[in-house]
Design a protein that fits this description.
Number of helices: 8
Structural class: mainly alpha
CATH topology of the largest domain: Helix Hairpins
Length: about 325
């Protein structure tokens, strides 16, 4: 075909299309139409994919690593009813997107005002459906990092709980040591006062020696013959002394002090063990807080929320997210 003939044919098509559009009362921008179809296809594809991933995450007991590895391609026979319901719901929402362009066309071309009004309402409903589909897709894109933040929050909360429990146990152990310490201090004061009193009474006198004869039986060397005899027995009798009851009292107090010292040592060991445990838990708390900060720094939704609210992402609460 001669180039002039080709241009004439193209010009004739444009003239025919222009006359047809004037007769209809509207024109069709084919570039915008193609863009709308591309957007609808993208929304439908993303919605279908997100619904399958959503069903894999919440409709089956599989991990995030499996989801990231696209294990949703395993045989469909292994899926349960919950997975199918969630997937079908997403597919229905995606298919519903197909009615938007016909509704727009009806709103523009239908002669009845009531039909155009219904088509307009339908377009609004489709827009809300699109918003929901985009929200699901966005949720899936943020869910994994948000899951990491939630997991880090759980670990941090558990670490703080263990720290509070250890602090309470340490306080209880310390409370048990305090009365023993007070008792030992009072007992030491009493022992010191008793020693001073004993020193004031002077040194104890020596015991009195008593020698006496007692009847006995005597034997020869071969122990073949015995006879009655007497033997001398020497005994020492304590002399009355004013400090003797104090000495007995001092011995009793020293015994009581030894018992209290042993008991206080056991309680102090419990406090020391609690201090060691608290130090380890504090390290766990620091590690958990660091892990949470790292998870928050990697979470896009926390970054968006912090930027929107004008605060640090690490200060964003779950309610704000």
């Amino acid at each position: 075909m001669h180039p002039h003939d080709a241009r004439a044919v193209a010009r004739g098509k444009r003239v025919f299309r222009s006359q047809r559009e004037r007769k209809r009362g509207f024109t069709v921008n084919r570039k915008l139409l193609a863009t709308a179809i591309l957007v609808e296809g993208s929304v439908i594809g993303a919605s279908l994919f997100a619904s399958v991933v959503f069903a894999n995450r919440y409709g089956m007991e599989i991990g995030a690593t499996q989801i990231a590895g696209l294990t949703w391609l395993i045989p469909l026979a292994q899926r349960g009813s919950v997975w199918w319901l969630m997937t079908v719901a997403g597919a229905v929402a995606a298919v519903a997107e197909l009615v938007r362009l016909p509704l727009v066309y009806a709103f523009r071309t239908h002669p009845s005002i009531w039909m155009r009004t219904g088509a307009f309402v339908g377009v609004l409903l489709c827009c809300s459906l699109t918003v929901k589909a985009v929200a699901v897709v966005t949720e899936q894109s943020y869910a994994q990092r948000l899951h990491e933040v939630n997991k880090a929050d759980d670990v941090m909360t558990e670490s703080h709980g263990r720290l509070e429990k250890a602090m309470a146990e340490r306080a209880a152990a310390d409370a048990a040591v305090a009365p023993l310490t007070d008792s030992l201090q009072r007992l030491d004061a009493q022992i010191e006062a008793t020693n001073k009193t004993i020193q004031g009474t002077g040194a104890p006198p020596p015991d009195r020696k008593v020698v006496r004869s007692v009847p006995s039986k005597c034997w020869d060397k071969l122990r073949t013959r015995s006879w009655a005899c007497s033997k001398t027995v020497t005994t020492f009798v304590p002399v009355e002394w004013q400090g003797r009851p104090l000495v007995t009292q001092l011995a009793q107090r020293n015994t009581e002090r030894d018992r209290l010292t042993a008991e206080r040592t056991d309680k102090a060991k419990a406090v020391a063990a609690a201090d060691i445990e608290i130090a380890g838990i504090r390290n766990d708390v620091v590690a958990a807080e660091t892990a949470r900060r790292v998870a928050v720094d990697r979470s896009q939704i926390h970054s968006f929320a912090g930027m929107f609210l004008g605060t640090s992402p690490n200060e964003i609460t779950d309610a704000q997210v």
